[in-house]
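Standup notes
- HV: blocked on the assembly model, inputs below
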Amino acid sequence: MEEKYDPKQIEPKWQDRWEKENLFKAHVDKAKKKYYLMEMFPYPSGNIHMGHVRNYTIGDVVARYKKMQGLNVLHPMGWDAFGMPAENAAISNNTHPAKWTYNNIATMRAQLKKLGFSYEWDREIATCKPEYYKWEQWLFIKMFEKGMAYRKKAFVNWCDTCTTVLANEQVEADACWRCGQPVRQKELDQWFFKITDYADDLLVHCDKLGGWPEKVTTMQKNWIGKSVGAEVDFKMDQSDEVIRVFTTRPDTLFGSTFMCLAPEHPLVLKLSSGKIQEKAVKAFVEKISTQDRTSKSIENYEKEGVFTGAYSINPMTGKKIPVYAANFILMEYGTGAVMSVPAHDQRDFDFAKKYGLEIKVVVNTEKGGLDAETMTEAYAGEGIMVNSGQFDGMKSNVALEAITDFLEEKNIGKKAVTFRLKDWGISRQRYWGAPIPMIHCKTCGVVPVPMESLPVVLPEDAELLSSGGSPLPHLDFFKKVTCPKCGNPDARRDTDTMDTFVESSWYFERYCSPGCGTGMFEKEDVDYWMPVDQYIGGVEHAILHLLYSRYFTRVLKDIGLVDFKEPFTRLLTQGMVNKETLKCATHGYLFPDEAERKGDAASCKKCGKDVEIGRVIKMSKSKKNVVDPNVLLEQYGADTTRLFCLFAAPPEKGLDWSDEGVEGSFRFLNRVWRIALSCIDLTKGIPPYKGDAGKLSGANRELFRKMHQTIQKVTTDIEERFHFNTVISAAMELVNQMYTFDLEKKDPERDSVLKGALETVVLLLSPIVPHFSDEIWEKMGNTESILLTQWPVYDENALVVDEVLIVVQVNGKLRGRFTINSDADDNTIKERALADELVQKFIADKPLKKVIVIKNKLVNIVV
RNA sequence: GCCGGAGUGGUGAAAUUGGUAAACGCAGUGGACUCAAAAUCCACCGGCUUCACGGCCUUGUCGGUUCAAUUCCGACCUCCGGUACCA
């Protein structure tokens, strides 16, 4: 009776063995080439989901592959353990965020272990532990001392009923998600990191990140958004005030017929004060202050503004122009004021049409013909200057420089650069985060907590408020402190916590010395391991997390803690794991097992009503379109789960979940298992064929060639593209070819070739299905884990083919094919192609125009 | 809205540098084995057309470049991700 493939028995066996043998332990070894591989650590939300399985499987394959290539591999794992869901769970289940988080970590760690990932668990970190955030607080104080962390006022979403701040996610249709109260914008003092100091450097280095997907660096470049232009001072009519505007188009200055200020601009209320417009302006500012002012919504609002009653003077024309406050101007960007040129900017054009303001053409097209009266849209292109005094007739790109120089000469303007990137606001009015290590004293102002008093420990015995607000401001034992500078006993501790993106901006360095008690990390560890050679994670992090990490690394470099600027040499952004959603009219979103599927329709198991089968979107708990990896592990085991995740799609693409494919992956492993067992029996004592390919013949030679082709394909597909789906296809083809042999017939030559093919299949699959491979490897008589075996190398000579297939096209259409010796010259190939019967039929008596011969591939005959 | 990406058979996908569109799977159909079933093995499997050889069409839509376009260029449509307090 043949032994069946039983993952339930094999997988725990190998997981134990790997752990006992310390197979994944990494040590600094300067004699060896290092490879630091890291996947984005998970937020401990409760259970591992398919997105994690996919991400970590990709990483594990690379880790194991690099190890087999002989590199010193560091492959750590940890927990992004602070964050809002812990607080929400605490409120709804009455459990403490800490308890909830640590329970989730325990569950998820066990799940990751069951998947057989090659993590070095000794390096595990959890960002909610004081020994981790202590060093974050330490860095915060360093940054404060350098002026890199500073305070300014900023708006937050505020719910008056719950008296709490709401995250953008907690705002649904401009109202609080808990109570439905309309959300108001409230201004608070908050901490900011000066990422804008590094805007240019972050931008310039985008082009040097050769190992990053171009789409990610493009998105980062656009996010940073450098604009070159000029700042221009506009004097006010009848007052000494000056309004400074930023423009990227100083060439259009003569065409500026009005001006717009951000509603928050300090001059808005001042200018209208005492005028008949005062009331309307106040109402407008008030209205805007209730609106969400994020870049997402701002472009969606209908352009709206109000006249302040004041005029400024266009410095070129000397004409009075009205000053408006407008909802599409952002205070954070540029100077919070723009000169409006309706003829050459679409937003200004729309605004001018709406409020009946003058439109003046100052840049005409080469052909001329722009007319302010008849224009239906702004002309934003380059052209020839008109209506612009001494600059008339110049090309607009030349005038841009000339006018800027003119402004500098007259001292009313200068060249200026503006970035779209804003400073990073890190204050969160929340409980479950790292406390900001600052103290507010009435006499000394803002004072850092002394370094020796760190960490400022987040009090774990706090009770969460049902409104969702942070309990920290209500905890006197936490809040009340003595000022470390003057001894004033009435000082107040900062009760805000840090944005969780702060923790994830340096965890990759912490992995290098996870237990370090004297600093963020040991320099020699970081010097050896960093930068990360390969980072793998979801595309959704393409901007924020990755940009913040790049910024933090620069800060660490400037403090002298590290010697490099860029933390991640190569980046792989995997696509999301998606699934259709199911929604019942009465019961809302349903889990897959709460609905009865009937072909294209489905009904709710609770009420029997029809269920709406929704769009295929990113798997998420709130939409309940999830697949529980536990179920797959239970039914098929880790290897099948891993195999399917990789086979279904290339990593960078989205993966739309289907249950059917999993079965096929399991079937494939069984197919390999069966041929392995019969080969092992058949080839006992026979060494794998290692000789000259030319000495083999027929099917044996074909298999030998296929084996080397497969090694080549698999190696380049992993090395260059991480396309594991084609890696698996290639392995399947090799296995299929092994199945064409009749093992009943005796053939010692075949047996040794077959043995080599089996060894190859198992080695090539081992990073993907490690338990399975180690088990077969052991059955083949090996005593060491397959992970410690060298990755196979292909033999160039074995790839040589004698005959190639040539296809023949007539006018680009496929008409015939033939095989020919692979070293035949172009002329021979051409003759053969023209002689082909079918080809002749299509050429008929038409004259030949051209014949294109592509060696070893194709002939195209043009008639 | 803005920025980035994707779209190929019934279905997941492949085609790496512009050179045979659909490799390898899933689902399906037929056959072998079996008392029977499961499992397994073998064969077929884009559409229309043809007794057949074959022909015509087909990579979201429309147009362009080229001897040749899934691949390059332009316009558009749909979907997905990000949009600064979800992580």
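- HV (later): unblocked. The mean pLDDT of chain A is 91. Residues 308 and 755 of chain A are 86 Å apart (CA to CA).
- Next: hand off to the docking folks.
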